[in-house]
Specification:
It is a multi-pass membrane protein. It is found in: Cell membrane. This protein is mainly alpha-helical and 178 residues long. It folds into 2 domains: 80 residues; 92 residues. The protein is 69% helix and 4% strand. A two-stranded antiparallel sheet has the order 1-2. The protein is elongated. The two termini are 20 Å apart.
């Protein structure tokens, strides 16, 4: 098990696999949301990308639960951040984890109370309703707004890793997760 765990100098293979697989899925998820927002309703690319949005979202939610549990299990072994920038990194990571949890969670009541229902990989989670439950639909707007906040935080995360650590400080922070 030690060869799978995180170390103070580097994240272990499980943490790295979860990080990079989630990064790829989030890129697809944000692409599907951007296409849904920017392209005309009858655009084939928009429809194709959007058709994967729920399955990607549920998969990401399950992965963030797994990743959070793994991170807690490895908390004392993980690479540390020091100084003011380290505290900012810790706060930024906490905000990322919080939004990765909250964004899908606020969509659950909207899906449960909506007219479309919710299925995951063809399995019905919530059946469609004839009429929506009005109070549950407010969460749909929160889901979208917080999703874009999450996208902005992810972009900030990338800028800090590449811009600050790689090109300005020229340290090896990226190697912790590579």
């Amino acid at each position: 098990m030690d060869n799978l765990s995180d170390r103070p100098d580097r994240f272990g293979p499980v943490s790295r696999a979860l990080h990079w697989s989630m990064a790829a899925l989030f890129a697809l998820q944000f692409l599907s949301a951007a296409a849904h927002w920017a392209l005309p309703r009858d655009n084939a690319l928009r429809q194709t990308l959007w058709s994967y949005h729920i399955d990607l979202g549920v998969t990401l939610f399950l992965l963030v639960l797994l990743r959070g549990a793994w991170a807690l299990w490895n908390l004392r072994r993980r690479p540390r951040h020091s100084g003011l920038v380290g505290r900012a990194a810790t706060a930024g990571h906490a905000a990322l984890y919080a939004l990765m949890m909250i964004v899908p969670v606020v969509k659950i009541p909207a899906a449960a109370g909506g007219t479309r229902g919710l299925s995951y990989l063809g399995l019905s989670i919530f059946p469609a309703r004839e009429t929506a439950i009005a109070w549950t639909q407010a969460a749909a707007g929160w889901h979208g707004g917080m999703g874009w906040m999450l996208a902005a935080l992810v972009l900030g995360h990338i800028v800090m890793v590449l811009g600050w650590h790689r090109f300005i400080k020229r340290d090896d922070v990226l190697s912790h997760m590579a």
